[in-house]
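Subject: Sanity check before I submit

Could someone independently write out the structure tokens for this chain? I want to compare against mine line by line before I put it in a report. The sequence has 466 residues.
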Amino acid sequence: MIWKGTGTMNTMFLFKRMGTVQALLAVLAFLFVAPPVLSQQDGNIAEQAALVTEFEVNGLKVLVKNRPSSSTVAAGLFIKGGARNVTEESAGIENLMLETAVEGSANFPREVLRKRLANTGTEIGSGINSDYSVLSLASTKEHFQESWRIFADIAMNPKFDPADLARVKERILTGLREAETDNDGFLEVLQERIVYKGHPYSVDVRGTLQTIPRFEVKDVRGFHGQVMQTSRLLLVVVGDVNAEEFRGWVARSLGNLPEGKYEPVKVPEISITKPALDVTRRQLPTNYVQGVFNAPGLGHADYYPMKIAIALLQARVFQEVRVERQLSYAPNAELNSNAANTGFIYVTTVDPNEAVSVMLGEMENLKTRAENPRLLSSISGHFLTLHYIDQETNGAQAREMAKYELIGGGWRNAFGFLEKVKAVTPAQVQTVARKYFKNLHFIVIGDPAIIDQEVFLGSSGTDAGN
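---
Independent answer below. Compare away.
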């Protein structure tokens, strides 16, 4: 699968709880394993790009990456726009439309669909984030042609049965309620509402407790007709697939959709221009803290040195906050990968002032200390290892190509990630730390009485080098 079920294509919550420990262990292993691994992967960029066939059918851009002898095939039909496709009043309609569509189509109603999928080992799902959404397919090579017929019918002729719609609405509402009660989830909700206020990302693409109940069959059917235009879509397929034969399949199915006149609009940058602090009172045994800062987007040249800077920060806050001071089990630093991007530091702790002070101190250290080039080379090995593990499946490769095509300057950049990370210098790391590690907007859930504003606001402004 590329994405499945009600997920919003965001692994941030999972990473907060467990990823930092794994990341630190990987960092410690870099010095011993990185150089041999790096040398084994040199020269793969051109080879990987040569496996991709690119063509258009009636305005629909199609990317087919051939993986000879692969026993599975993954496909993703991506809808451009994300949060820009909806308003506060229509938040969640795209999510609802896709999740209801996969319940059944005109030629494959729910029960028939379930049997066909089970018999062919096929999975069809959907996902959405602030930049785009996807209808996804995972199939065996043996049954790909039949799976494609089902997939295309769901994309073009969803049934939108009232009973299916009601069931999906309740499932989405359950997830939204859980996000309000789960403290990690609520941090993300608050970030959208507060930090992204006035930006397209402030609209929750999953929907809200107010909008989802209002949508009816006519609403999702109308939205489906609006976005199912080839100029709004991108199709990516990865597997042992004959591109020319597949072109005919597309022409006889998705190629019959109207082309439309969609013109993508660039997402405005998120601008956090001064330190800020918002505290939401909850009686909890610990405090949840997230400090958000501006960051380069996936298509920006600063993205790659920023990845290295965040990896260093991640290891340091783990060492200083957890190992040295036992202030938190899972402190973290992370860089998102959106068109308009942010990074964040995160901690849950009974002593937020001390924990945040230490984390901000480590951010300052990255601005003033030049890193050892050998350490940066080792971190490149860390990214290489994680990248190749992550890209083992066809679905993951389809997702990566689509991400770069839609918001990262073109699909070919998906194969240049490791080369650009390896080229990062200590001076570049220091430059991006000075440029972006400032003006943090903190979101806190916990006890306002113990929060020292001087700690949160006094040390997160512009540094002497800016």
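---
OP: Matches mine. For the report I'm noting this point. The chain has two domains: 12-41+269-458, 51-256.
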